[in-house]
């Protein structure tokens, strides 16, 4: 089985820690976006789960570009976050342009 960097869909791995301000910024993004997926328009109230919040610029880029321990403050700025339903989030995660 091919895994890691040798796998065709490898995107740099998954980093589970989004920083100390993640919960607050996630809630703020959903509120700003009126609890609505910004790609397809489905309301979070229509789903069986809460909306996802996607980093437009991947969080790993901030860890690589900055040595300061507060890299997550830059990564979690509202202008870098967008509320999406799970389906649209998957599309964005695997798109070649995002």
Quick structural overview:
With 98 residues, the chain is of the alpha+beta class. It has helices at 22-32, 59-65, 71-75, 86-93, and strands at 52-55, 81-84.
Describe the structure.
With 98 residues, the chain is of the alpha+beta class. Helices cover 32% and strands 8% of the residues. It has one domain. The protein is globular.
Please tag this protein with its features.
98 residues, alpha+beta, two-stranded antiparallel ribbon, 2 strands
Q: Any chance you could write out the topology, listing elements then pairs?
A:
Layout: H1 22-32, E1 52-55, H2 59-65, H3 71-75, E2 81-84, H4 86-93
Antiparallel strand pairs: 1-2
Would you tell me the structural class of the helices and strands? Answer: alpha+beta
Q: Uncertain runs with pLDDT below 50, 5 residues or more?
A: none
Number of domains: 1
Element order, helices and strands? HEHHEH
Query: Distance N terminus to C terminus?
Result: 27 Å
Relative strand content: 5-15%
Q: Estimate the helix proportion, in percent.
A: 25-40%
Based on CA atoms alone, the radius of gyration comes out at: 14 Å
What multimeric state do the chains show?
A: single chain
- SS element count, helices: 4
Shape: globular
The biggest sheet, with number of strands, parallel, antiparallel or mixed sense and barrel status, is:
2 strands, antiparallel
Average residue-wise pLDDT: 83
Give the strand tally.
2
State the strand order across the main sheet: 1-2
